[in-house]
Amino acid sequence: MRRSRRRTRSKSKWIGRLFFIVFVVLLSVAGVTEAKVIKMQRKNGNLKTQINDIETNKKNLAEKNKKLLANIEEKQNLYKKKMENVKIAYLTFDDGPSSNTQDILDILDKYDIKATWFVNAHKNLEYLYKKIDENGHVIANHGYSHDYDKIYKSVDSFKENAKKLEEFISNITGKPMSKMIRYNGGSNNTKSHRYGGNDIMTKIIKEMDKEGYVYFDWNVDSTDASKYRQDKDKIVSSVLNYSKRKKQANILMHDLNPKTTTVQALPEIIEGLQKQGFIFDVLSENSYKPQFKKVK
């Protein structure tokens, strides 16, 4: 009996200890779990705060962006209004370079003006093409050759002539040539009819349009091509008189060896145009395009 009681007491003690251990473990687990819960709650609180901050920042950025866009639109509108009243002169020189090119460059440099050259191919003058390009002027296409009988006998011969010049200029400047072109004699010339028929210019313009070329005629004639060497004062008066009522003046001049009076007239032309309120720019494919012959 005594042994039985002892055993019973011993079991009771172990059971009690076991319950105590389980209780302690449960408390410990509960404590850990509670700590994790508290930690997670804190994290959630931090995340909510961060989300709120992000939302606030988004609203602030949206407001700033709205104000910035409104400011940009206002400036664009002001710029458009200003540009509506701006008069732009484009000085263009055909057929060069020549013995006059350096003098023209020096004058343009003096007035800090850039011009556009519609050039032909002149071997042994590569250094002048480079100077035109390096000085920030634009070189555009006037064909490798200016011989009407060769270039206007067919569409293919004209296109080949233009592409040959492109290759010639690109080899000199090291960069692709612009797609701006001026047809020899203008887009409405009739000399071409002798060699390719009455519709040759229409055919050429359509084909060159397909090839991505943009053609420019002119709306101010300096008249320096009317004579072998035109009178300097005649050149000046022609340019200034024709430009008076223009908002955009595309001025035709020539850069050939005999055209020394064109060089002499240039300073007076520039100063006269400035007095008329003109600023100066180079042509680009997006510039105003005087075009004599419209082809559908």
Task: Pick out its properties.
296 residues, alpha/beta, TIM Barrel, 2 domains, 6-stranded parallel β-sheet, two-stranded parallel sheet, 9 helices
What does this 3D model show about the protein?
This protein has 296 residues and is an alpha/beta fold. The chain folds into two domains: 1-85; 88-280, Glycoside hydrolase/deacetylase (TIM Barrel, Alpha-Beta Barrel). Helices cover 57% and strands 11% of the residues. It has helices spanning 2-84, 101-110, 126-134, 148-151, 155-173, 193-196, 200-210, 232-243, 260-275; strands at 87-94, 116-119, 138-141, 180-181, 214-215, 220-221, 248-254, 278-280. The strands form two sheets. Strands 1, 2, 3, 6, 7 and 8 form a six-stranded parallel β-sheet that branches. Helix 8 runs parallel beside helix 9 (260-275). The termini are far apart. The relative contact order is 0.12. The model has no long low-confidence stretch (mean pLDDT 89). Keywords: Coiled coil. Residues 87-281 form the NodB homology domain.
Task: Produce a short descriptive summary.
With 296 residues, the protein is of the alpha/beta class.
Strand and helix layout:
Blueprint: H1 2-84, E1 87-94, H2 101-110, E2 116-119, H3 126-134, E3 138-141, H4 148-151, H5 155-173, E4 180-181, H6 193-196, H7 200-210, E5 214-215, E6 220-221, H8 232-243, E7 248-254, H9 260-275, E8 278-280
Parallel strand pairs: 1-2, 1-7, 1-8, 2-3, 4-5, 6-7
